[in-house]
Amino acid sequence: NTVMAAQMTNAHRRFLQVLMSNGITEASQARKLHQHCCEIDKVYYAHDKLDDFISTINSHLQPLFMQIRKGISEEDGRAHYAVVNLAETEVTKMASDYTETELELFRKTMDLIILSENGFASSTDILNLADQLKTKKMKKKEAEQVLKVFVEDKWLSEKNGEYTLHTRCIIEMEQYILSNYQDVARKCNICHSLAIQSQVCECCGIGMHLPCVRKYFRGQTEPRCPKCNEFWSCDLP
Question: Where in the numbering of this chain does the RING-type domain appear (predicted)?
Answer without folding.
Answer: 188-229
